[in-house]
Structure formats: C-alpha cells, structure tokens
C-alpha cells in the first residue's frame, strides 16, 4: 500500500532511517522503502511505485523530494504523503506538521486534500514557493496574458502556497515582486495596493495569474529549499490537475 522514497541526505544520522522504519511498522503502515541514486532518480522511483500498484507514494525528506514527487503525482488517482525532514516552514504548514512522527500518524489516518501545484516548462513542480535567485537589483520582465510588467527588482517570489499570502483562487499563482528605487508608477502602483500603504512604499507588488513568463537580462536560477528548479527565461503556471495530498488529521491544522 505504501511506497516510501527516502532522501538520505536529510537524515541527521543513519540510525534515523531505522527509527522511521520501525515507527512506521509499529503504526502498521510499513511498505517498500527506496532510495534515489544515480541508477534511479526520484521521478523514476515514483513511476516504479505506480507501476507496482501502490496507492500511496510517500517522500521522506524536505522540499526538494516533495516537489519532485508532486510533479509526477499531479493528476494521479493515487495519493502522495510526506514525512518532513528539514522541510521549510511553508511545507510543514501545508501538511499540518513539521514533526516526522506526527506526519507518519497522518499517513495512517489518511485525510486527503486536493490542490493544484506550480509547474515550470522544464517539467519541474513546486508545492509552495520558488524564488528568483537575485544577488543584486536586476531588470525583470513578467509577461502575463494581457499585460507586461518591467522593473528593476531585488526579489521575485512565485507562490503556489504560503502561510503569509492569502490564497484567493486555488488555480492561480501569487507573484510578489520587490522593486528597487522609488515607488513604481502605472500598473505596478495599482497592483501594489494589495499590500497596503506601508509595503507599497517599499516597492512591493502582488499579481495573481494562472501562468506567466519570466525574463531577465541574463540567465538566472529559480530556486526553492536551496536547490535549482529552473532557469530564466521560463514559463511558470498552475497545474491543470489536482494533487491528492495527505494532510493533518487535526481539525483546523491544515490550510485546506
């Protein structure tokens, strides 16, 4: 029933692998354990688990393994679970816990939440956020369906889910850009009103869209959890299909 993909890099010590396996066995939800390698990527292991008719694919690790599994599982009838190890605050909030033992218990209770994920044109996915890896103010162009936004930006965040941003539409991404220099005019000023007066003065602007194209004057990485997801120029969009994600059994602890 359960097919586990372990990110060994996120285990504090080798004994943690044994501890997690023993705890899952005690809960009655042991299964097949696999480990990504040069011979078998995360994506290939997901395909293998699905071909073996497992109905739950579980990542054990942080944002990187969660995102890579989610990109393969979006649109599947099978469920995805996560046991977090060194996961980001947003990812922990999404599943309802940062504690691996609580997350294991959630697998047994099997509360399913359906959500869209973020996707890039190169096939990568993200559950929470990706950031443009800017080291200095940079000319950035955001191309939406009906308009363009150009600014000298100091940060660009593309969010599928964040506990800091109220999600208005489940099939839209939230894009937050901070621009350098004085307050922007025109469309940037109009959209920055989402943040209120104080943040507007800091040059923040918020956009919501199903998709966007991102351009920079030189190629720059889009990162999350300190790993490279894609590079500019890049198309980023919300998935057309849902991911079935196991979240916390506790009432009110899940954002869904």
Topology:
Elements lengths: L1 E5 L7 H14 L4 E3 L7 H10 L4 E6 L1 H11 L5 E6 L4 H7 L4 H10 L1 E5 L2 E3 L4 E2 L2 E4 L5 E6 L4 E12 L13 E7 L7 H6 L4 H5 L2 E6 L1 E6 L4 E4 L2 E5 L2 E5 L4 E5 L9
Helix pairs in contact: 1-5, 2-3
Please give a structural write-up.
It contains seven helices and 17 strands. The longest helix is centred in the first third of the chain and has 14 residues, at 14-27. The chain has helices at residues 14-27, 42-51, 63-73, 89-95, 100-109, 187-192, 197-201, and strands spanning 2-6, 32-34, 56-61, 79-84, 111-115, 118-120, 125-126, 129-132, 138-143, 148-159, 173-179, 204-209, 211-216, 221-224, 227-231, 234-238, 243-247. Strands 6, 7, 8, 9, 10, 11, 12, 13, 14, 15 and 16 form an eleven-stranded antiparallel β-sheet that branches. Strands 2-1-3-4 form a four-stranded parallel β-sheet. Strands 5-17 form a two-stranded antiparallel ribbon. Helix 2 (42-51) packs across helix 3 (63-73). It folds into two domains: 2-116 and 241-247, 3-Layer(aba) Sandwich (Rossmann fold), CATH 3.40.50; 125-238, Tumour Suppressor Smad4 (Sandwich), CATH 2.60.200. It is of the alpha+beta class and 256 residues long. Residues 183-201 have low confidence and may be disordered.
């Amino acid at each position: 029933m359960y097919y586990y993909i372990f990110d060994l890099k996120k285990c504090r010590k080798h004994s943690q692998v044994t501890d997690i396996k023993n705890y899952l066995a005690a809960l009655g939800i042991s299964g097949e354990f696999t480990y990504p390698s040069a011979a078998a990527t995360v994506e290939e292991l997901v395909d293998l688990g699905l071909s073996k008719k497992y109905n739950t694919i579980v990542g054990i690790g942080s944002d990187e393994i969660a995102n890579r599994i989610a990109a393969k599982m979006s649109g599947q009838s099978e469920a995805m679970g996560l046991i977090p190890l060194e996961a980001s605050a947003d990812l922990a909030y999404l599943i309802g816990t940062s504690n691996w033992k609580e997350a294991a218990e959630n697998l047994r209770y099997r509360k399913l939440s359906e959500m869209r994920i973020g996707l890039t044109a190169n096939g990568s996915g993200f559950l929470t956020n990706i950031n443009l890896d800017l080291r200095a103010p940079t000319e950035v162009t955001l191309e939406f369906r009906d308009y363009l936004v150009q600014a000298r930006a100091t940060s660009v965040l593309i969010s599928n889910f964040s506990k800091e941003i109220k999600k208005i539409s489940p099939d839209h991404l939230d894009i937050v850009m901070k621009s350098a220099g004085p307050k922007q005019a025109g469309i940037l000023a109009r959209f920055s009103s989402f943040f209120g007066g104080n943040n507007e003065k800091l040059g923040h602007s918020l956009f919501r869209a199903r998709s966007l194209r991102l351009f920079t004057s030189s190629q720059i990485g889009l990162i999350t959890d300190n790993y490279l997801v894609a590079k500019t120029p890049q198309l980023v969009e919300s998935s057309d299909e849902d991911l079935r994600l196991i979240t916390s059994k506790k009432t009110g602890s899940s954002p869904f």
